[in-house]
Amino acid sequence: MQSILKNLTEQKAPAAQIDLWPAIQSRIQMSQPTQSGMNTHSNSKLWPLKTAFILLTVILIGALILFLPQGRALAQEVLHFFYRGESNFMPGPTSMPLKWVEQTPGTAAGNLTLQPATPQPTPPGQGFEKYCGTANDPQCSVEAIREAVTFPVFALAKLPDGMYFAGATGSPDRVFLMYNTPNQAGTLLVYEEPFSGAESQLAWDVGADADIQSVQVGTVTAEYVKGWYDGNSNPPVWNNNSGGQMLRWVDQGILFNIYMIGTEPHLNRDELAALAATLTNGPVGLNGIPAVVTATPTQAAVQTIELHTIYPLTLAEAEKKVGTALLSPSLLPETLSFIGANYDEKTRVVEIIYIYIDPKQDPAISNPDSLLIKEQVVPEGSDCDLCGFLQGDGKQAKQDPLKLVSKDATIETVQIGDFTGKYVEGIGWRSWTDCCGFEWDPTPYRKRLRFRTNELAIEVWYDGFTLTKADIIAIAESLE
């Protein structure tokens, strides 16, 4: 027991400053039982003494942790705010199998019906939605949310350049503050709740590859993680490069959770921690009043994009343009809905687009999963834009960036019914470098399958993580 106590306390409370063992030892000596000839009687007294000894030890260690600065530091360091999972898949229900829906070839599948946006649920407790709005549209001032709860609420008195306070909401046991940029390129979210010490408050799961780092927020130790679970995958997969940042710590009895989403303003780990250290429960002035921000011209332009203007044709109209019958899927996942088609007069390529529409967002700016069926009339024996793939390096990519793939990319030969096709994965050519030209991004978010029938060259192009190579082949085989 002496060894255990010394190991627990020596680093945070050096022996020169505090020595708990003499006090414990003296208590043990005073309580030492006399030798008894009856083992039963002796054991009956030994158990209460053991219990008392253990209880005394716990009390003394608790006093050390509660009342000494070294002990408080020890308690803070014992807390862990993130837990690595056994894999990079998000914990929870297993992925649901895709539900495939039969289509009528030559007839576009009906559009998904857009429903009104579903507000995000307010944290547990009787929420303040009626007066303060929901978590995706907080409306209360800092002062109002402080008056609504019985615990101190901390806010930023000085904001990063380009950010404004959007509003606060929550419930009696948790509050939520949102800071935004006018162009929506960056969002800072602050969650605060009284810390009860319950493990459920600390159990925040991250992927097995997550890099959990300790960082100082003022005088306390916090934990920091960069990355998110990518919801485009089924099930979601942890991505260290997603750009999201999380910072969690406990101070003054409050559990803080900060989430930084987006690219503006650019804040690294230490800058985010330094910003967190400025949170105050004192006056914050105008930075505690929700700002009314008008969308920038760029943002307004993005919001007015209509996919039907890019793909304005029906299948029948596209067939009339190209002068021949086109193929369309007879089987598709139910999440994909027909939007329209377009036709390039120069290349004579028809593009037919199917897209997953999030009923909570504008389909013009929310299209995580999309499927393109490209078709081109090809005279027998001639080459075409959609005929197979070529391999090369980044300096050659300008010649034909869609047909040319990296020499390091894997091109697989696959069978589509009676036809042979070529399959490749990778987002494609991205940023330019002086040494090597364009860089190839092999991320399997983009999957492409090319093959030829007797009259048509066809490419099935999918952006997303939900569908697999087998799914892409199944769609190609269903074309009629």
Structural write-up:
The protein is built from twelve helices and 26 strands. It is an alpha+beta fold. The chain folds into three domains: 77 residues, no CATH class; 204 residues, no CATH class; 173 residues, Protein Transport Mog1p, Chain A (3-Layer(aba) Sandwich), CATH 3.40.1000. The protein has a seven-stranded antiparallel sheet with strand order 4-5-6-13-12-9-8, sandwiched between helices. A hairpin with a 5-residue loop joins strand 5 and strand 6. It starts with a helix and ends with a helix.
Q: What's the SSE blueprint?
A:
Elements lengths: L1 H8 L11 H10 L8 H29 L1 H10 L4 E2 L15 E3 L26 H4 L9 H7 L6 E2 L7 E8 L2 E7 L5 E9 L4 H4 L2 E2 L6 E5 L2 E7 L1 E3 L6 E3 L5 E7 L2 E9 L6 H8 L2 E2 L16 H7 L3 H4 L4 H8 L8 E3 L2 E9 L4 E8 L13 E8 L12 E3 L11 E3 L5 E5 L2 E7 L2 E6 L3 E5 L4 E7 L3 E8 L5 H9 L3
Parallel strand pairs: 1-7, 19-20
Antiparallel strand pairs: 2-15, 3-14, 4-5, 5-6, 6-13, 8-9, 9-12, 10-11, 12-13, 16-17, 17-18, 18-26, 21-22, 22-25, 23-24, 25-26
Helix pairs in contact: 3-4
> How widely separated are the two ends?
78 Å
**Structural class of the helices, strands and pairings?**
alpha+beta
Largest sheet: 7 strands, antiparallel
Helix content: 10-25%
Strand runs, count:
26
Strand share of the residues? 25-35%
| Outline type | elongated
Rg from alpha-carbon coordinates: 31 Å
* Total count of helical runs of at least 4 residues: 12
Q: How would you briefly describe this protein structure?
A:
With 480 residues, the protein is α+β, with helices and mostly antiparallel strands.
